[in-house]
Amino acid sequence: MNHVRARGSGRLTTAPRLRAALVSIATGAVALGATVAVASSASAGTTLATSAAEQGRYFGTAVAANKLSDSAYVGILNREFNMVTPENEMKWDATEPAQGQFSYTSADRIVSHAQANGMRIRGHALAWHSQQPGWAQNLSGSALRSAMVSHVSQVAGHYQGKIYAWDVVNEAFADGGSGARRDSNLQRTGNDWIEVAFRTARAADPGAKLCYNDYNTDGQNAKSNAVYAMVQDFRSRGVPIDCVGFQSHFNSASPVPSDYQANLQRFANLGVDVQITELDIEGSGSTQADNYTRVTRACLAVTRCTGISVWGIRDTDSWRASGTPLLFDGNGNKKPAYTATLDALNAGGSTTPPTTAPPTTTPPTTPPPTTAPPTTPPPSGGGCTASVSLQSWTGGFVATVRVSAGPAGLKGWTVGLTLPSGATVTNTWNAQNTGTSGSVAFRNLSYNGTVGAGGSTEFGFQGTGVGPTALPSCAAA
Ligand code: 9MR
After folding, report:
1. Which of 88, 211, 276 to mutate to test the pocket of ligand 1 (most atoms within 8 A of CB)?
2. Could you give the CA distance from residue 122 to residue 160 in angstroms, rounded to a whole number?
3. Ligand 1 proximity of 131 Cβ (cutoff 6 Å)
4. Does the beta carbon of 317 sit less than 6 angstroms from any atom of ligand 1?
5. Active site includes 171?
6. Cα dihedral sign, 87-90-92-93
7. How far apart, in whole angstroms, are the C-alpha atoms of residue 214 and residue 247?
8. CB–CB of 43/3 below 8 Å?
């Protein structure tokens, strides 16, 4: 008899729905042999979730909370899928509509539904230039940086232990051939905003896989090369990143790339999982079905491709409904694309380990971080001074520290801070800390040690417990 993997664990067991089928078959069957034969074919794939599970993968969908009262929608969801991504409900505008005031009602509905039905959850998305609440759109610099860190910490903390993978940062690279970061208010807070978001998410939910997610990165191109270089850099420096999501929104202008599988594989070769996160393919009939087959086969052929999620259930649920890009029509009927996907899952993938050599192309260089111009008047003494501004919540804080140079300027600096008992530094940006509790020293990094006479620079750190109240010391190197 075939088995499927239990959701949420590596244990092999008989799926509840299959078990129910077996019981009803067994009660009506006389010969045991007949029972086994029927059970085998049932487990070889009648739904996307069970067929994907047979291949050690999940099959997911975006879910909208306001559709959970639609019984046709919920019927397909519960039958076919074992991973859900809230389509909009976990985004910054939804979860923190006013600064420091969190709203989880809609997202919690989806999480409860998923948990009650044995589905896992992809969190989407913690830090993104789009769908920011108005108050965040109006922030910049260290105020925005602190707000982002607080947001990531709070939201990932709220769902701690419940999320399979988080899209920690979404769509941070520019389209086209530049290979540059996308300009955004978050990017203008400093090039390290992405790694700060990842470190913050890890501290808040150590059990969740942390992913970078983007579109137009599905084949090898300047944009995916730039993401590749970032992931490689993060892996080499120990920045916590576990996975890369490939949105895979396809249509005739943006077809499934010929090197789709090779591109998934080169990222997997960096030591991260890869996932297809927002799949939809505009079209109909056999052309659309063939494209779904290609995408499904590509994932199955890459050992570290852990699952596929489509971006909605029925065509009418899609963000681009007119392109009929999904697996079920507006009446909930299975389309040829559904059958093709199910068949591809049931056919399975290659179990041969990949033999392709890692790519040899030189990754594009990322631009150096920009230092904001000084805004404070020069202090009157020599050496340097430091001041701290704190943003606190129950159980945690973000500290932003301004280091101001005296009349001689600085070639390097160290700031000393004493944390109250029980407080621990979990994450630092624009400085390197020695120690994480009690007396902690923060030294400049290579790019922000030099501060002109009367100028200043900022660094920050996040911690658990209560933030520092004592005055900081500052020493010039
Ligand atoms: O499907 C989402 C749609 O309902 C929203 O209006 C839109 C707003 O930005 O976001 C859509 O989802 C996007 C996802 O969050 C990120 N990748 C692109 C998706 C389609 O735009």
Report:
1. 88
2. 12
3. yes
4. no
5. yes
6. positive
7. 6
8. yes
Which residues have a Cβ under 8 Å from the Cβ of 87 and sit 6 or more positions away?
Answer: 62, 63, 64, 124, 311, 312, 319
For ligand 1, the distance from its centroid to the CA atom of residue 285, given in whole angstroms, is 25
Catalytic pick from 89, 96, 195, 278?
278
Mean pLDDT confidence for 337-348: 97
Summarize pLDDT for 129-153 with one digit per residue, the tens: 999 999 999 999 999 999 999 999 9
Ligand 1 pocket test: pick from 87, 110, 314 the residue with the most ligand atoms within 8 Å of its Cβ. Answer: 87
C-beta separation of 152 from 208 below 8 A: no
Q: What type of residue is 3? A: H
Torsion angle of alpha carbons 390, 394, 396, 401, nearest 10°? 0
- Mean pLDDT score of the chain, rounded to an integer? 86
Q: Is 88 in the pocket of ligand 1 (CB under 6 A)?
A: yes
For residue 270, report the distance from its CA to the centre of ligand 1, in Å.
28
Q: What is the dihedral of CA 174, 164, 278, 56, to 10 degrees?
A: 120
278 has catalytic annotation: yes
* Alpha-carbon span 367 to 111, nearest angstrom: 39
Residues 6+ apart with CB under 8 A from 68: 74, 109, 110, 113
Report residue 431's pLDDT band, with 50, 70 and 90 as the boundaries: confident
Over the stretch 438-475, which tens digit does the pLDDT of each residue have?
Answer: 999 999 988 789 999 888 888 888 888 899 988 899 99
Q: What is the pLDDT of residue 399?
A: 84
Amino acid at 394: T
pLDDT at 301: 97
Work out which ligand 1 atom sits closest to the CA atom of 131. 9
Residue whose C-alpha is closest to residue 416's, from 440, 433, 449, 397? 440
Q: Whose CA is nearest to atom 14 of ligand 1?
A: 87
